[in-house]
Amino acid sequence: MLLLCSNDFSNSTLIQDKSNTIDCKELQKILTRINFYMKKSQLKDAYHKLDESIRKKGLSFEQCCTFLHKLKHDTWQTKPVNQIWFDLFGRFMNNGTERQKVSAESFLRKFLLKQQKEKDVELEDVRQIFAHLNQLEIANVASSKALNSDSHMYIDKDHFEAYLMSAENDVFDPKKERFDQNCMTHSLSEYWINSSHNTYLTGDQLASQSSVEMYMYALYRGCRCVELDVWDGDVDTDLGLPIPIVYHGHTMTTKIPFSDIIDAVKVFLSFNPESYPIIFSLENHCSIPFQEVMAEQLLTILGDHLYTPSESTLKGALPSPESLRGMVVLKGRRPAGPINEEDNPEDGEIDDEESLLHTGEISTGNVDTAVSHGVAPELATMTLFHGTNFKNWDTSIEKPTYHMHSFSESTVRSLSKQTNSRQWIEYNRTHLTRTFPSGKRVDSSNYSPMVAWSNGCQMVALNFQTPDSPLRINDGRFRENGGCGYILKPCTLTTKDEFLKPVSSRLSIKVLNGSCLPKPKGQRRGECIDPYVKLSLYDEKEGKEVCTSYTTNYVVDNGFSPIWNQDKYTFDVCNAAVAILQLAVWDKDIHSKDNFIASSSVPISCMRQGFRSVRLFDSNNTRSGAFDFASLLIEVKIKQQMLE
User: The pTM is what?
Assistant: First the structure.
């Protein structure tokens, strides 16, 4: 609250007279900025109730915070925080007065253990929570007295509210969100890997700009598999050396040098030397001389950061993320020389569903180009993952583990519907599969990753330049494990026990209220928003995606402290180990398209029960600036716990 007020209080456009105080007119501007509408007459009445000396001088920063907190406090007099407080701890204390505080013992027993279903929490933990909460600077507008020396023994209602909305009470289990190095020693095939498609593009697939900055953007967003479409470029007139370039071939997208991308990744690794392996998905269209330059640039620029597999390491299971820490790993074509019919020349962006249905074999590339060029030995020997065509699962499973497949989204749907789809999961226990959007998505929209994930596909590549719902699902998935880009797949996808089936459950969500919801894109100007929440469960059942959605009503002119607190929404979860709940806040606009505000996507396997806060993220998956404090308060009930 203090930081939110500080951002607006210190703004020079609001305080024209440089007095470091604000009058009623300037206060109206702050309320509009933070999305809280009050009629001028109502605001004047509230302002004139202040002490006369304050009215004459204007509100100081601290007084402004107190005023705003009182507005929020008065709005919540009857619901929902008051209701939760009294329901949990009782309306009256032992002396007959209305409850003003709660003890650590009562907080532990009635709230954390019974209501929140917390485990492994003790009284000393609660006392530390209380001590921290009572250090918070909260405007004292309620009737509660200062707790002083009892700071670790009691909290009042305002500090209870602060805990409810805190990151410590987030619906996303902190234990799941924290990085766990102990789980990083499995084979690469046992992980979901955060992956990008046509990483270089800033917009659509036909005419947008290509940019090296998109690789940095993707890497800092958690991506660990980036794509490079490499083509023959010009020849340096001074040195006489070929210049490999990256762009979306046969389109009007702009071109960037291959070496510039490698330089950028080297810079990233210099600042993040402990990063888990970055996989280069090379779509290689180059002739041999250009491939030789590619190999030299990779080796020269990356140096020790480039992983070069030996023949001995190609035998048996794939290496682990831990063993490849700080390395760049290549995916492309390993056998040198001409391409045979089993090799996958490249991950061509074509819709290959008809190829599968009519021939039983999937080809995903430009065979003529690949056959005529072959593979330069220098590039082949530094490549780990070798793409091959798909014929049938029996054949694929017998291939060495470094052999892998790449499928378009349409093929993913087709393969998932087949009766032998369980073989795909078996294949993905030891081998890798990469999936990518249909070539028909020229607008760079994304497909849902749920079906691919449920079949154990590791690299489900999405267009990171498009902040749509599938990308937000991806953000939620890879929020786990410290955002390192590698998530250990559930046991249903990594063990050979065919009797181990996905676990189902029933999920109930009630959206209570919101706090500090900004304007679209964090804009400072504009009318107050009319927020509503869309709840969507993305799930998988029998090889098909299942999506169930609900929408709350919208609250008029209030993003500062909107209250919903109405319906409970029930979801039947089919595959709890894979399913994800997305809560997205939108601004209702009756005259045009509704505007996205912020969202949070939470895997069901990472969800906690009880009254929980939901930290909201902007379209770039960050919580900076106007989104620092954007959050929801929800009530979560899960009838059947998920198996791990």
Answer: 0.91
Active site residue 197: yes
φ and ψ at 20, to 5 degrees? 65, 20
* Alpha carbon distance 457, 189 (integer Å): 9
> Can 248 be counted among the known catalytic residues?
yes
3-state SS class at 585: strand
Antiparallel, parallel or unpaired: β 403-408 and 385-387 = parallel
Lookup result for tokens 């402290």: 561
CA dist., res. 1 & res. 71, Å (int):
12
Coil vs helix vs strand at 17: coil
SS3 labels along 519-537? CHHHCCCCCCCCEEEEEEE
User: DSSP strand E in 124-243: where?
Assistant: 154-156, 191-196, 225-231
Judge if the upstream peptide bond of residue 80 is cis by omega within 30 degrees of 0: yes
Q: Which one of 73, 152, 159, 197 is the catalytic residue?
A: 197
Catalytic residue among 73, 248, 305, 405: 248
CA dihedral 590, 591, 597, 602 (to 10 degrees): 50
What does the pLDDT look like over 156-213, one tens digit per residue?
A: 998 999 999 999 999 999 999 999 999 999 999 999 999 999 999 999 999 999 999 9
Output the six-digit token pair for 25: 């007119």
At 224, the amino acid letter reads R
